[in-house]
TrEMBL record:
Main location: cytoplasm
Family (UniProt): Belongs to the RNase T2 family.
Location of this chain's protein in the cell: Cytoplasm; Vacuole lumen
Chain's role: Rnase which modulates cell survival under stress conditions. Released from the vacuole to the cytoplasm during stress to promote tRNA and rRNA cleavage and to activate separately a downstream pathway that promotes cell death. Involved in cell size, vacuolar morphology and growth at high temperatures and high salt concentration.
Name listed for the protein in its UniProt record: Ribonuclease T2-like
Record domain RNase T2-like C-terminal: where: 288-401
Keyword hit for DNA damage: no
PROSITE patterns per UniProt: PROKAR_LIPOPROTEIN, RNASE_T2_1, RNASE_T2_2
Catalytic residues identified in the record: H76, E133, H137
Length: 403
């Protein structure tokens, strides 16, 4: 079987190396590389994460002070734990870079932009937080060592570390997973640990480690993975946690809103009590309040947003909307005026007198119970598309981004 560093275990991409020194790349790994924590023989540690094979993507919910958007958890880090819960730290001080911002500006500007919103230091010093995460944990990831690159360029492995951590974080929308189960930030409601766990597990497929501070306030989630192949190009497989870490009580868990936050209270519609027309089921949904953007998701990714008139625009500045709780939902207002569904189309204008009551299903805006909106085509350039509630060629969803 393949031994460490034999050509059997990895294929060096000579063509890429010869094409351009600026195109330096990590070694390519065989598709049947063992899953980390699961090898039965020694294997090349450029294609097999060892000894840190249990990768943990950790997230924060910071409320005091608050960090990041009111409706999203933030990144803490990506940690290569050993498969028994122990871990190494600060494995290569020579690569503990102190210019992460510049490294990413040059190597992965869109990752940097994302981190500036979602990977936040509670003391306001993002650069030093990123340096800490890279130096303490990133330098211990075996597949990111310089010897795992063809024509290694210093710092490129740090670019790979942050890019991978951000992509993995995007697959773990804890806020939305919890909200979909009616678990939303509140200063009055508390939750049971089992409700939180089952909401997360129903999406992740395995238990997450749920952590609270000494006041029973939910403040951290750890998601464990094993990796097939390298951290740069391999596949992350969700697994059960190893080691300990859970710190919340079984009942009375607080999930506090971020101050200045804009989302939400859960409304439970009235249960039928004797009238023949009242609904007999209960429905839950998040009520939005405060200021935010209405982003448009079409074809699986975000593409532009709703502007002041209620139309869809893909190339300009997003309008700020104010959400105001009303009945079992909320109304929306832009600088143009109140928003309503009129003749099956979204319109915000000073001529609107009766604002429509919308709801939010935890992931997107709903009207009359449906999260589907439509346009006749995806707008380009300076074109604005009318947003319809009745079926047209392009289906879209509208998501709220709190400001
Ligand atoms: C797993 O791989 C590592 C790294 O190649 C090696 O040191 C270790 O002995 C292997 N474990 C088994 C059970 O073969
Ligand atoms: C960051 O610092 C390293 C040395 O620690 C240096 O090699 C590299 O050129 C710097 N990168 C940028 C983009 O400034
Ligand atoms: C809109 O959201 C619903 C439910 O959240 C989903 O089933 C549908 O695929 C989404 N449509 C688009 C265009 O993203």
């Amino acid at each position: 079987m393949a031994l460490s560093r034999t050509p059997m275990a990895r294929y060096v991409l000579l063509s890429a190396a010869l094409a351009s020194s600026a195109m330096a790349t990590s070694v390519s790994c065989a598709a049947d590389a063992p899953l980390s924590c699961h090898n039965t023989t020694a294997y090349d540690t450029c294609c097999f994460n060892y000894p840190g094979g249990d990768m943990v993507l950790t997230q924060f919910w910071d409320t005091n002070p608050a960090t990041g958007p009111a409706n999203s958890w933030t990144v803490h880090g990506l940690w290569p734990d050993h498969c028994d819960g122990t871990y190494d730290s600060s494995c290569d001080p020579a690569r503990a870079y102190t210019n992460i911002t510049q490294i990413l500006q040059a190597g992965a500007p869109s990752t940097l932009e994302y981190m500036q919103v979602y990977w936040k230091d509670y003391q306001g010093n993002d650069e030093s937080f990123w340096e800490h995460e890279w130096g303490k944990h990133g330098t211990c990831i075996s597949t990111l060592s310089p010897s795992c690159y063809v024509n290694y360029q210093p710092t490129q492995e740090a670019v790979d570390f942050f890019t991978t951590a951000v992509s993995l974080f995007k697959t773990l929308p804890s806020y939305d997973w919890l909200a979909a189960a009616g678990i939303v930030p509140s200063s009055t409601t508390t939750y049971t640990l089992s409700a939180i766990q089952s909401a997360l597990q129903s999406h992740f497929g395995h238990p997450a480690v749920i952590r609270c501070n000494s006041n029973s306030e939910l403040n951290e989630l750890w998601y464990h993975f094993n990796v097939q192949g390298s951290v740069q190009t391999g596949t992350f497989h969700p697994v059960d946690p190893v080691g300990s870490g859970a710190t919340c009580p079984s009942t009375g868990v607080k999930y506090l809103p971020k101050p200045g936050g804009t989302v939400t209270t859960v409304v439970t519609s009235a249960t039928a009590t004797g009238t023949s027309t009242a609904p007999s089921s209960t429905a839950t949904g998040a009520v939005l309040s405060g200021k935010g953007y209405l982003n448009v998701v079409s074809g699986g990714s975000q593409n532009g947003c709703i502007i002041g008139a209620g139309t869809w625009y893909t190339t300009g500045t997003c309008a700020t909307f104010t959400a105001t709780p009303s009945g079992a939902g909320f109304t929306l207002t832009s600088s143009k005026g109140k928003c309503a569904i009129s003749n099956n189309a979204l319109t915000c204008a000073s001529s609107v007198t009766a604002a429509t009551v919308f709801a939010y299903d935890g992931a997107s805006l709903t009207y009359s119970g449906s999260s589907s909106f439509y346009a006749t085509a995806v707008p380009t350039g300076s074109t604005q598309a009318t947003v319809y509630t009745a079926s047209h060629a392009v289906a879209l969803n509208i998501t709220w981004q709190a400001q």
